[in-house]
Specification:
Strand order of the largest sheet: 1-4
CATH superfamily: EF-hand
CATH class: Mainly Alpha
Number of strands: 4
Protein name: EF-hand domain-containing protein
Keywords: Signal
Radius of gyration: 16 Å
GO molecular function: calcium ion binding
Distance between the termini: 42 Å
InterPro entries: EF-hand-dom_pair (IPR011992), EF_Hand_1_Ca_BS (IPR018247), EF_hand_dom (IPR002048)
CATH architecture: Orthogonal Bundle
Number of domains: 1
Shape: globular
CATH topology: Recoverin, domain 1
Helix content: 55-70%
Pfam family, one: EF-hand_5
Strand content: 5-15%
Length: 153
């Protein structure tokens, strides 16, 4: 009970933070998803943060992420990151074009039923895949104790 209350409090505090996707890098994943700061991301913690993230991105509050909402949220984060970058304007533009193209592709992949919107279930599933990927020791949590999975690309 106390643990759930702490997680909920941390999530509510994090709602005002920028929305983040489930990172492909384990340590970044932990940093982004560990709302109570204990260095461990539990299943419960991750589910709660994903639900809150979905609600934050769903600007019109209709329960479905449109392409404009999903890609727009990503673009906002990308622009903030690029603004702080020391890269040349040319390099920033190359990255902007590449990243926005990938965001469009990701939307199409996440919209698995091809309805034109990402449902809460589709969004949850996409994040859950990253949780499972990072839980390499299969203990139901993601932490530094999980060996980084080998890159198979």
């Amino acid at each position: 009970m106390i643990r759930n209350t702490l997680i909920l409090a941390a999530v509510l505090a994090a709602v005002s933070a920028p929305a983040l996707a489930a990172s492909h890098a384990r340590d970044t994943f932990i940093k982004e998803q560990d709302v109570n700061g204990d260095g461990v991301v539990t299943k419960e913690e991750f589910v709660i943060t994903r639900e809150q993230l979905f609600k934050a991105i769903d600007a019109d509050k209709n329960g479905v992420l449109s392409k404009e909402e999903y890609v727009g949220e990503f673009k906002g984060r990308l622009e903030k990151r690029l603004a702080g970058s020391t890269e040349t304007a040319e390099k920033k533009e190359e990255e902007r074009v590449r990243q926005m193209r990938q965001a469009d592709v990701r939307f199409g992949v996440l919209d698995s039923d091809k309805s034109g919107g990402i449902t809460p279930a589709e969004f949850a599933y996409s994040g859950w895949r990253m949780f499972v990927t990072h839980d390499t020791n299969k203990d139901g949590t993601v932490s530094a104790a999980d060996p980084v999975a080998a890159d198979t690309n």
